[in-house]
Amino acid sequence: MSILSCPLPQRTSERILLGHGGGGRLTNQLIEDIFLPAFASTARHAHHDGALLNVGGGRLAMTTDTYVVHPLIFPGGTIGDLAVNGTVNDLAMCGAQPIALSAGFVLEEGLPMETLVCVVNSMRDAALVAHVPIVTGDTKVVDNGKGDGIFINTTGIGRVIAPNVIGPESVRAGDVVIISGNLGDHGIAILSVRAGLEFEGPVSSDTASLWPSVEALLEAGIEIHCMRDLTRGGLSSALNEIATVAGLRITVEEALIPVSDIVRGACELLGLDPLYVANEGRFAIFVAEADAERAITVLRGQSVSNGAVNVGAVHEHRSGIVTVRSRIGGNRVLDMMSGEQLPRIC
Amino acid sequence: MSILSCPLPQRTSERILLGHGGGGRLTNQLIEDIFLPAFASTARHAHHDGALLNVGGGRLAMTTDTYVVHPLIFPGGTIGDLAVNGTVNDLAMCGAQPIALSAGFVLEEGLPMETLVCVVNSMRDAALVAHVPIVTGDTKVVDNGKGDGIFINTTGIGRVIAPNVIGPESVRAGDVVIISGNLGDHGIAILSVRAGLEFEGPVSSDTASLWPSVEALLEAGIEIHCMRDLTRGGLSSALNEIATVAGLRITVEEALIPVSDIVRGACELLGLDPLYVANEGRFAIFVAEADAERAITVLRGQSVSNGAVNVGAVHEHRSGIVTVRSRIGGNRVLDMMSGEQLPRIC
Q1: What is the pTM of this model?
Q2: Which CATH number is associated with domain B50-161?
Q3: What pLDDT digit, counting tens, does each position of B97-139 carry?
Q4: Regarding the domain with residue range A168-333, which homologous superfamily does it belong to in the CATH classification?
Q5: DSSP annotation of A134
Q6: Cβ of A134 and B43 within 8 Å?
Q7: To pair with A288 at 20 to 30 A between CA atoms, which of A59, B149, B178, B185?
Q8: Which of A15, A56, A143 sits opposite B113 (nearest CB)?
Q9: Preferred mutation among A8, A124, A125, A153 to probe B, highest tally of B CBs within 10 A
């Protein structure tokens, strides 16, 4: 009876839960059960951060993201630069050079104007650093108590520079998995402010544009099979999505994955796994093994990815799966995140 | 000292008010004082609903809008079809055929899944009618009490078809002002549900794609000087924005402006002026007088604009101003809306 009276159907619940925004299993269920069936009839769909369009003679990428991070201002960034960098990065992950962003604001009545000014100025600064213009915008205001300060949508279009298809479908057995630097800084920075925690040292968000690293890889002629920025759901969710679509097994070596001592300590204290913690300036790259060493050298030449390391590889398998070899040598399945580790991280 | 330490310019209040989202004077102040100074350094700016971009050999328009309408479902539509039609219309107003939309959702924890499904399906239907694919999306969830059911950002890109520049700067003395049909239905439909009012008859939102009408005008070879959809702030705010940028006087004849008897009665009852009430499927077009009759014929051939009428004209003036000649013959200035007539209308 308890099973029969369970209010949740097997896959989709009857109400929206915080976990539906977490970037893990519930988010994927929402997309599969509700959004794709509706929107697939209007468009070709792809399991990727951006859509590819043929416009005139050129190839464009288009991507959208709404930012609801709490608090609005945190060590290393604000919701404003997060909104610019996040969308720039989604374009970069498609191999596309950002050419224009839009900005849509939902402001809560009573928001201090100086908070808005601070956030808008950090958007300006991030846009200037990323060399991408904010070309159009929109502002809505909701009643006090019906929003939470500021929500920002940024949508971007970019010119696809990569000569080959970048996506999970291009991943091959034998590919190497490279990550661009240490994991978990953004998530722990947010958590430190939100919970009022102090760790052994300061932790700043890693929010940054990843386009310079991607551009350098493309200019070096490296054939990128797939890239993914490691935001909501962290490395584990990104790898699981890719493994599922590619129908391959991805293995990573826990000992090779860089995590700072402070972040590792904070994660141990809080019972978090850094492989699930969100980043806003880190990405994973899949290339053929023959290109791996050169790709790492190129990545290390860019400040945002100067901690690039080879952390794993891709193998044939009967279905998509991610496994991690732990420090003590055992293998375990690294599952997609279920529910929500830390709501409103971006 | 107080001036030196003041973080804000004089014109702007210290906190966000509902009126900052109303599409009238306060919205314009926010744009002029905060958004343009920051974002102008990242991009050329234009006082228009969309940005124009040169991509490859082609001209693209890009526009963004976030929808926070309350309630989510209302007579004649939902927040979903409003979000699709609104962004399609902003592209159409640039003379651009919509080619792709993105959809970014902010969902409130606890939202009934069936409400989401209803809204998503109405987006699908509107996208199919407008022949525009929804190519990419994003979902965020905020805690219960930190949102209001569903907010949706739609951003669109379109291929500019119009051969000439469409915008306030192309408006000339001698131009005629045509509106595409009766005004005020959307605003009064929302208000009727929100206030639980019943009027003499049912009023449905006019939400619809305006692209078929614009396409028909372009195919007929009519040189459109300017177009504007009459959303937040209604006809009066749209005309004021155009008059200000063009530096001309726009006159309209109140007796020629079509308003249904039910909407007129509701407005009288509620003390509203239909010239300030929001529409979601009506637009104003500026063309040379020589083209006016043919433009009206073309517009009347499309169901969404079959009530098109000539309501006014453009004259030389030392500064931008809008005047209305009332039914009894007097002239008055039709000012931009100050504050917020009806919050969260779109």
Answers
A1: 0.93
A2: 3.30.1330.10
A3: 999 999 999 999 999 999 999 999 999 999 999 999 999 999 9
A4: PurM-like C-terminal domain (3.90.650.10)
A5: E
A6: yes
A7: A59
A8: A15
A9: A153
